[in-house]
Amino acid sequence: TRVEIREGAVLLRGFALSVADELLPGIREVASVAEFRNMVTPGGHVMSVAMTNCGRLGWVTDSKGYRYTTEDPSTGKRWPEIPEAFEKLAREAADAAGFSGFAPDACLINRYAVGARMTLHQDRNEQDFGQPIVSVSLGLPATFQFGEVENRRGAQNVAVRHGDVVVWGGTARLAYHGVLALKAGVHEATGEYRFNLTFRRAG
Ligand code: MD3
Ligand code: FE
């Protein structure tokens, strides 16, 4: 089912379910080359979410700031390629949400263990805010928070489950958003974790 959770933001419930068993080995393969790591924010906090990337560009943070890089700072090697199954899913989801021709060059893979969370923020490190963001949830369920554009207040919650895809574009592209602390649990596909694939056109 397709739910418009706000103007520009479309929740495609279960859209990735039929390909989840291709996505999870893809995550394992990417992480075997570019390992999950807990990055440090410019403010000096270690992020509770562990991250890695695939694609031409990968999102990183360190004491110098947030940015996209072509190389993994931990190895100096280019980020692994986006697996074919990832790219196909991202393109089809964007298409289903009304954004045809989406061609991501960056896929951030977030791994949430129990207690991991992401505080409200905007995604502003990309070149063209006219391009949507496609988010794929795998494993343990979580609660997305999303607020207004340029305003953290009045955030709403939406529960996301294994296989759900959200496409954020148009007027929702610069909305504040975050993820509440992951609750303990065990998922048959991912064990004690939630994974989120975030596809972007960054360059
Ligand atoms: C709403 N990740 O990596 S994706 C991030 O579940 C990030 O790991 C979260 O936010 C996660 O930056 C949420 C959902 C999302 C992504 C982009 C958005 C929501 C958004 C852009 C605008 C508004
Ligand atoms: Fe974000």
TrEMBL record:
Q: Tell me, which GO biological process terms does this entry list? A: oxidative RNA demethylation
Main enzyme class:
oxidoreductase
Question: According to its UniProt record, which cofactors does this protein need?
Answer: Fe(2+)
- Which PROSITE patterns does the UniProt entry name for this protein? FE2OG_OXY
Question: A Gene Ontology molecular-function term?
Answer: oxidative RNA demethylase activity
What residues does Fe cation bind to? H121, D123, H177
Keyword vocabulary terms for this entry = Dioxygenase, Iron, Metal-binding, Oxidoreductase
Q: How is the cofactor bound?
A: Binds 1 Fe(2+) ion per subunit.
Q: What is its EC number?
A: 1.14.11.-
One Gene Ontology CC term in the entry = cytoplasm
The record's NCBIfam families line, in alphabetical order, gives: PRK15401.1
Q: The Fe2OG dioxygenase domain covers which part of the protein?
A: 103-203
Q: Which InterPro entries match?
A: Alkb, AlkB-like, AlkB-like_sf, Oxoglu/Fe-dep_dioxygenase_dom
Q: What is this protein called?
A: DNA-N1-methyladenine dioxygenase
Q: Enumerate the Pfam families for this protein.
A: 2OG-FeII_Oxy_2
